[in-house]
Amino acid sequence: MKLKSFKILSLGVSLLFFASSCVKMDTYTGPDASLTGNVIEDGSKNNVQTCSGNFSIRLEQLSWDSTPAPQDIPVKYDGSYQNTKIFSGHYRVSIHGGAFWPVAPEEMDISSGTVHDFKLTPYLTISDFNAEMTDSTTLRLTYSLDAPVAGIPKILEVQPYLNTTQIVGPGASIYDFSDLNKIAVNKDWADFNDADKNGEIIVSNLIPGRIFYVRVGVKFDNNDKSSNLSNVIKITVPGK
Amino acid sequence: MKKRFLTIVAGCLMLASCQKLDIPPVDILTDDQIFGSEAGINAYLAQVYRKLPIEDFTYRPDGRNDGVGNVGFNLHHEWEHFYCEAAADGEMVGPYGGVDIAGGFGYWPYKDIRDVNYFIETLPTYAKNFTADKVTSLMGEAHFLRAYYYFALAKRYGGIPIIKYVQNYPEQTIEELQVPRNTEEEVWNFIGEDLDTAYQMCGETSVAERANKYVAMALKSRAMVYAGSIARYGSQTFVDGDARSQGLVGISADKAAGYYQKAIDAAKTLEGHYSLYRAKGDKTENYVNIFLDSKSPENILIRSFFAGEPERNHSFDATYSPNSDMNYMTAGGLSRTYPTLEFVQHFDSFDFVTNADGTPRRYNSQAEMAQGLEPRLRGTVYFPGDVLRGVPFDVQAGIYPSFSGTAADEVAKPTGTRSFILSGDHTTLRNGRLIIGKAGMYPPAFGNDNNTRTGFYVRKYIDPTKGISAVNLFTSTTPWIELRYAEVLLNRAEADIELNQTADALKCINDLRDRAGASLATAADMTVATYRNERAKELAFENHYWWDIKRWRIADQLLNNTHFHGLMPYYVESENKYIFLKELELFNRNYYFDKKFYYEQIPGGELATNPNLYPNNPGY
After folding, report:
1. pLDDT tens, position by position, A128-180
2. Which segments constitute the DUF3823 domain (chain A) (predicted)?
């Protein structure tokens, strides 16, 4: 046999092997399932007031493994969540983090178009939240706190959150207006007096002509030091 | 055709030569070679010590991979020493964007622990090659080394599997090899037991880089105050989860006293064998030399570095001095990490830079400000006006043509409305005077951090005897002091105070304060705050504080969306004076410590290979 034809033959044979190794197709289904829903406050039936990065929905797929690696779906600032690229299967679904009374994890089958709402009871509700400009650059915030259920974790701090978009809260706020106006509380709810429960925060030296979105948060000494949040108010600082 | 024939002949010849297959390999060391002589043993232990998780100059707490198999510890050709724990825990501000080190890097050294277990199992069968005493002391040393690895694991993860024997595959089944986690309490007890074994078996003395019985007790005093504080303070501040309810993290509070007492007992064994360094008359010079004098009686365990080998020297001198691009204090390298005002305030409030009426105090020179501060602080930090290698730390941040009003009002002014004059370089003059000092700050807009962001530089471990031309990358050989007697005294004082043994604590604290040139304490000062503050001062930048604020469970309070400050010197032109303003450090970064960071998560890859490691630590 000539060397050249041997080479060609070898090439042909190896190409044959190469091609034949590709006939086994991956027949697993893609991530065609989805899970969407809302996180609802048990009392008012409204979506809970939250913020990006505050808490999440944790999924653990039990179809294959009793100790799966968890995947989290962040809850959006309007209290809704969705993930449209999930593998169909049997999951344990739980709330990961957040300033709420714990709810037991639920097991469910997730397939295309699965909807599931969570009902949560926040540690504190922040009501009567009001924001008004007292002079051209000073903002006065008032709010009322109430604990639907006794025995909540210690309250660490109350603080305003200001941002230039409606996505505002812990982790999305302007430090100088938000963190610097933090009120260190560090006491239990049982020790709150009426003045603590009906609080006032002054934010000064706002920038004239700007629009801010503002809310108030109460931070707890719980596992993830998370916060209950008020609704968001848009304020316009008068121009010069 | 001829070629093919030759190939067949050669193949046949090769086959014929294969009769004797079971011959000793020539490319790996055999047990006979290793355990046959003291030289072999030393070579084996040298690589164990080399891999020991000592958080020295080259340690990267966020875990850089050096490309040859090391991550975090003992990196090959590592020079960026400003990526250190102190740059993330508030002692300093540095290249990290915040608390970037809290996730760790999945440290999981069971391969290295196996090397130690192998040594413990194999040495007895070669005991005839050595004297009985030698075998005993080597076995003790191995137990110290194993405890050291488990200490590095326990402080990161809490409870992890205790593996005391050499695992073998395929002799053992996969199920046997998937060892579940022990409780955190069992792990700390195991560390204590291994160190007790080391104490009983090791010799009285050793070379400075290796363990003797007192080195084991020094580490035990450290490990036991860790365990005691985790039991006491971890029971107050914690994240709930399955791992906690099963005891895999956390120790019950009633165990704290027992651990603290063990720490005291261990620390007391070193008395009379080690002492605080007091060789120099001047207290500041003395404190500086603790870290440079190889004959220090305070050194318990050190790691040496050697010239000429990139993986066995370091670059500390070149990476903590300013303005490398102008070769101002170094011939190369660059610095990026600087002590904070909050750190120096462990020593003094620094309120003296402001007069009673709130106006900044006027100084004739930058150097005048630091006069009269505690010598230990002067030996730890380079202050404005200090001199290194013949050039001054001129850290001037700008020039005020004139200054009136209070310091607080000036600092509160919105950015851009203050009247001082800035420059983006270290050469621009105003009326013949530099606007920004040669070691001074760049305005944040220029984004450069190779000069201080706080007004301070590190002095601890800096060798002042080297000339500028000798300070470059990979030229430092100053040893790292892993265990020194000052820490043992602090461990003992901490345990004493936690157990209300005030007299013994006072003795230890005042020994340290006397050496530091600080005012002496009284029995009434023996509080938790005092031992914590003393430890922060004495052990600054030595990779202790990060673990201390974690085990005291105060990191989530100290690093709670915290922004750190500096002390910025300005020249006031109209008065020919200097003023100092307490301001946010130039990058104004946010530091936040999540409570779940008190424990690192079990590495994902390990969870995948061993499901018995579940549940993961709380919060992950």
Report:
1. 999 999 999 999 999 999 998 999 999 999 999 999 999 999 888 999 999 99
2. 34-119, 126-225
Burial pattern B598-608, b for ≥16 Cβ within 10 A else e, equals bbbbbbeeebe
For the segment B136-195, what is each residue's pLDDT rounded down to a tens digit?
999 999 999 999 999 999 999 999 999 999 999 999 999 999 999 999 999 999 999 999
Tell me if chain A has a CB within 8 Å of the CB of B561: yes
Name the pairing type of β-strands A89-96 and A138-146. Answer: unpaired
Quick check: A77 pLDDT over 90? no
Model confidence pLDDT, tens digit, residues B566-587: 999 999 999 999 999 999 999 9
| Interface residue of B561, B584, B593 to substitute, partner A, most A CBs within 10 Å | B561
CB nearest B594 (choices: A67, A69, A224): A224
How close, in Å, is residue B453 to chain A by CA atoms?
19
3-state helix/strand/coil string of A194-207? HHHHEEEEEECCCC
Chain A window 55-74: which residues touch B at a Cβ cutoff of 8 Å?
65-67, 69
The total number of structural domains that make up chain B: 2
Yes or no: domain A125-236 corresponds to CATH 2.40.37.20 = no
**B384 within some domain:** yes
pTM of the model: 0.91
Quote the domain boundaries for residue B570.
328-460+564-586
In B, minimum Cα distance to A72 occurs at B620
B619 touches chain A (CB under 8 A): yes
Residues A97/A54, Cβ–Cβ less than 8 Å: yes
A13-66 pLDDT per residue, tens: 666 666 666 566 778 888 999 999 999 998 888 899 888 888 999 999 998 888
Is domain A33-120 classified as CATH 3.40.47.10?
no
B596 vs A223: CB contact, 8 Å cut-off?
yes
Instruction: For residue B434, give Cα distances in angstroms to A149, B279, B438, B571.
Output: 64, 40, 8, 10
Euclidean distance between the first and final Cα of chain B, in Å?
Answer: 68
* Residue A78: predicted pLDDT: 87
Q: What's the complex ipTM?
A: 0.84
Q: Which comes out higher in pLDDT, residue A197 or B308? A: A197
Residues B601 and B615: their CA atoms lie apart, in Å, by 10
In a domain, B18, yes or no: no
**Residues B305 and B181 grouped into a single domain:** yes
The span from the CA of B614 to the CA of A60, in Å, is: 14
Most A CBs within 10 Å, among B99, B236, B560, to test the A interface = B560
